[in-house]
Specification:
single chain; about 90 residues; mainly beta; 6 strands
Length: about 90
């Protein structure tokens, strides 16, 4: 992959949206919500006084509308600041 985030930004591969509910009801494409979890694919170098806490391969939770959506080689990714990440799972 040729994308390398700068400073305190991270590149995240969002998880797939749920296909059915816990009760077994299949969710149509128009009703699916944006996923709020994903896997860190690449990290920047961090700021001078603040090193990054996430690393490649971490499963993270982030805000529903956090980050900027980009497409690289036909795959969808999110690029966001580390401060937009809520938790590491």
């Amino acid at each position: 992959m040729n994308v390398r985030p700068l400073a305190d930004r991270v590149l995240i591969k969002p998880a797939e949206a749920e296909q059915k509910t816990a009760g077994g009801i299949i969710i149509p494409d128009t009703a699916k919500e944006k996923p709020q979890r994903g896997t860190v694919v690449a990290v920047g170098t961090g700021k001078k006084d603040e090193p990054l806490t996430v690393k490649v391969g971490d499963l993270v939770l982030y805000g529903k509308y956090a980050g900027t959506e980009i497409t690289v080689d036909g795959n969808d990714y999110l690029i966001m600041r580390e401060s937009d990440i809520v938790a590491i799972i």
